């Protein structure tokens, strides 16, 4: 009696199988990374003006990921399962990075970039400047660091001081210069360019509970009062456009770093999942040669 022998796989068929496996692994790595790239880019460039459109596109990406997962489960196809899982992960992580960038950088960037630039602002006059982004104060404006207050909170020192006009004492404060960790408890306000000569340009700052508490202390300690229409917080800068550009550059740098890190994670995860789920095509079943049966 003879024994069975496996018929060799033709080289063209073996090459085709290798190409198919390479394509599956490439798709498993590249498609999830493209989802991450798209999500972060949408938050960078579109979320400010088109929030609804961004969330619709993110929902479509979610549907696509779920579709891949369902197809993978139904057909027991490892590539679809891998792509669906990694796309879902990239979508969630990308949205988290995008939301964080928006809260930490982009809201501030658009607030200053879209804000109105006012010139020759008299700090002793109460004006409605809620749409302001950049303020150029009139000549003679200075920060009265003799009435500085530093409020300690969670290890940080939140500094406030009135913005005043030389040779004109005014106990009603319309603008407060603010900063963090740049003063002493009752003096030496040195935040931004507040102490530079001939620098009277400031950008609007957001209200915060810490600054509000510091202002209340200053009102109590120095016997001054806030504007009845609400005072504004500002930080003095020598070049506001450079500041705005720095905010955007930092946000973009973090986004690019996150994209590179996600590509590396997709590559590692894709290769691991390919090893576990994307099995190479089965070899052809052994055939018995004629005359091998005794």
TrEMBL record:
What parts of the sequence cross the membrane? 25-46, 52-71, 83-101
Instruction: Say yes or no: keyword Membrane present.
Output: yes
Q: Write out the entry's keywords from A to Z.
A: Membrane, Transmembrane, Transmembrane helix
| Protein name per UniProt | Uncharacterized protein
Name its species: Alexandrium andersonii
């Amino acid at each position: 009696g003879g024994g069975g022998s496996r018929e060799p796989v033709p080289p063209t068929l073996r090459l085709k199988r290798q190409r198919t496996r390479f394509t599956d692994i490439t798709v498993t790595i590249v498609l999830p990374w493209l989802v991450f790239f798209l999500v972060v880019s949408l938050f960078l460039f579109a979320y400010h003006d088109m929030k609804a459109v961004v969330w619709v596109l993110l929902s479509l990406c979610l549907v696509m990921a779920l579709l891949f997962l369902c197809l993978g489960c139904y057909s027991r196809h490892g590539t679809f399962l891998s792509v669906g899982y990694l796309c879902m992960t990239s979508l969630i992580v990308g949205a988290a990075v995008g939301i964080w960038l928006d809260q930490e950088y982009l809201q501030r960037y658009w607030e200053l970039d879209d804000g109105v630039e006012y010139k020759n602002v008299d700090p002793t006059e109460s004006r409605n400047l809620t749409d302001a982004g950049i303020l150029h104060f009139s000549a003679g404006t200075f920060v009265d660091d003799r009435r500085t207050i530093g409020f300690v909170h969670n290890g940080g020192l939140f500094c406030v001081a009135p913005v005043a006009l030389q040779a004109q004492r005014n106990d009603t404060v319309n603008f407060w210069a603010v900063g963090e960790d740049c003063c002493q408890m009752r003096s030496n306000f040195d935040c931004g360019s507040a102490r530079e000569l001939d620098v009277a340009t400031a950008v609007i700052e957001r209200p915060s509970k810490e600054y509000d508490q510091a202002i209340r202390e200053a009102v109590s300690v120095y016997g001054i009062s806030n504007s009845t229409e609400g005072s504004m917080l500002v930080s003095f800068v020598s070049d506001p456009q450079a500041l705005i550009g720095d905010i955007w550059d930092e946000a973009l740098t973090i986004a690019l770093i996150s994209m590179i890190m996600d590509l590396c994670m997709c590559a590692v995860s894709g290769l691991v999942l390919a090893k576990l789920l994307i099995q190479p095509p089965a070899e052809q079943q052994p055939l018995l040669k004629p005359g091998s049966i005794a």
